[in-house]
Specification:
The protein is of the alpha/beta class and 512 residues long. Helices cover 20% and strands 19% of the residues. It has 12 helices and 27 strands. The strands form 6 sheets. The chain has a 16-stranded parallel sheet with strand order 4-5-7-9-10-12-14-15-16-18-20-21-22-24-26-27, with helices on both faces. A 3-stranded antiparallel sheet has the order 1-3-2. Helix 1 (2-14) packs across helix 5 (94-106) and helix 8 packs parallel to helix 9. The longest helix has 14 residues, at 62-75.
């Protein structure tokens, strides 16, 4: 049986045709079995390995090529979605991994070019001589505390040092890595100062400092002139960004600042700098003030390159009009939280049918947390591409889609806002009575999660509800108290229900 499956998988691999797709697929097999791949990061790996490059003639970026490759590999059943929880993660089945490794061995792949010792519980790094012939090293999720020495790694392209307990990196550690393109130091929470030798990495294109203790972006960053991607998400101690540092990085295409605790003034000054950046294509940002939001909304450049936007706090913001984002072609995630004064969120929908088809076309994730005065989320009518929706802790919310459908500002009544929805999570909404006023098809729904919504008595499901493996999570008492057209729970739905007793009230941890 296994041999038969192996030949089927090998046929799928041979049928890929494109050598670039095959190379990216085989690269995934270098990681341990059952490993979870975060899509943006593995694409950056492929770019560092020079499998992917921008195609100016076709106006396709290397990152877009990577996304297309992952879709193609999933279609070929060579990669699996990680779970129903995440769209941006995937895995490789054990048998697929075995098949891929056998192909690599058959090609005579040099075994010493890849040093992948991920999650092995190592307390010391591999001996330095093992580093020196490698193209890629991954020591992620180990227990190493100190990195010493000056390894001479002339061939090294990718270095993953995402080690939570790492306490010290020698100042000269990166001195002899002239070709390094990808460096991941994320979750290194003790990292407050960067080793001086890091700024001698003149080939560096990708630098991940997210979830670190870094305090300052000093003028030394100006030396990293080839840097294309800089991740600074959840850098809670980052307080200083030296003037003109970001604007001096003339090749910077992607900047991630979501969850960063930079002051309002620092963020606003940084946005002024980014206005002048010619290369920047993608921006992740957390907005915490009305002033910053106004600056963003009036900047034609910046509001078109945001691909992950968090609106948090913003004291005094009673209403939010999101039409400033309607020409954005890259926005994928929108999150609003702790906006305690916000009563209304709207989107003025274009009357032109062509414009309607491109507005928010890539926006797939929406999250609304702890907006105490918000009574509905009717803005969803203008976001027809949403696949994951989480709403929690909105104490005044009575409807998800209001009965008036948003009036003239929203889309026509015949539009189904849930046509692409795969996951819907409703948590701690004490006044919620209605998701929408009439039954709708939810053809792709994989998971419905409802907790602490005692007044929600009806679900807006018609006969075309739920994809294969559809599941409903919630309290048993809530489920048994639901009202149905014929008085009984449909058998097809009853078998999908899985009782839950509690949930995490920290909605910030919620992941779909």
């Amino acid at each position: 049986m296994e041999e038969k499956v192996f030949h089927i998988l090998k046929f799928s691999y041979d049928s890929l045709g494109d050598e670039m797709i095959k190379a990216c697929f085989l690269n995934c097999s270098l990681f341990p079995k059952a490993d979870t791949f975060y899509q943006p990061k593995i694409i950056n790996n492929w770019m560092a390995e020079e499998f992917l490059e921008d195609d100016g003639a076709l106006s396709i970026t290397a990152a877009q090529k990577g996304e297309n490759i992952i879709r193609e590999l999933k279609r070929a059943c060579l990669l699996d979605s990680y779970s129903y929880e995440r769209d941006d993660c995937f895995r490789m089945h054990d048998m697929v991994h075995d098949m891929a490794r056998s192909i690599c061995l058959g090609k005579g792949e040099p075994s010493d070019e890849y040093l992948v010792q991920k999650g092995l519980g190592l307390i010391e790094p591999p001996p330095i001589p093992k580093w020196e012939a490698t193209k890629m090293i991954s020591l992620r999720y180990n227990k190493i505390e100190i990195l010493e020495g000056k390894p001479k790694c002339e061939k090294l392209l990718t270095l993953d040092l995402s080690i939570k307990g790492l306490k010290e990196i020698a100042n000269d550690f990166f001195l002899y890595m002239p070709n390094l393109k990808f460096l991941d130091l994320s979750v290194h929470q003790n990292l407050r100062e960067l080793p001086e030798s890091l700024f001698k990495l003149r080939s560096l294109q990708f630098l991940d400092l997210s979830n670190t203790g870094i305090r300052e972006l000093s003028p030394r960053f100006e030396k990293l002139q080839k840097l294309k991607i800089l991740r600074l998400s959840w850098t809670r101690e980052l307080s200083v960004v030296s003037s003109h540092v970001i604007s001096s990085l003339t090749n910077l295409e992607q900047l991630e600042l979501e969850g960063s605790h930079l002051s309002v003034n620092s963020i606003n000054e940084l946005l002024d700098e980014l206005e002048c950046s010619k290369a920047l294509q993608h921006l992740k940002l957390t907005v915490r003030s009305k002033v910053t939001l106004e600056k963003l909304s009036t900047s034609e450049k910046l509001n078109q390159i945001i691909y992950d936007l968090r609106i948090e706090g913003c004291k005094g913001l009673s209403s939010l009009e999101l039409s400033f984002l309607k020409n954005n072609q890259v926005l994928q995630s929108l999150r609003m939280e702790d906006c305690e004064d916000m009563e209304k969120v709207t989107v003025c929908w274009p009357k032109n049918d062509i414009l309607r088809n491109v507005c928010f076309r890539d926006l797939s994730v929406a999250m609304i947390f702890n907006c105490k005065l918000l009574k509905d989320a009717t803005l969803l009518l203008a976001l027809p591409s949403i696949s994951s929706l989480v709403i929690g802790g909105c104490e005044s919310m009575e409807d998800i889609i209001g009965a008036d459908g948003g009036g003239d500002s929203m889309v026509p009544a015949n539009i189904n806002p849930f046509a692409r929805l795969t996951r819907l999570c409703l948590l701690a909404l004490p006044l919620l009575k209605c998701i929408c006023s009439h039954a709708l098809p939810f053809p792709h729904l994989i998971r419905l999660h409802v907790m602490a919504c005692p007044k929600l008595k009806r679900l807006p499901f018609d006969s075309n509800c739920g994809a294969e493996n559809f599941e409903i999570l919630g309290e048993r008492e809530w489920w048994d108290g639901l009202e149905w057209e014929d008085g009984a729970i449909p058998a097809s739905l009853n078998q999908c229900f899985k009782p839950r007793k509690s949930f995490d009230l920290d909605f910030r941890k919620c992941q779909l």
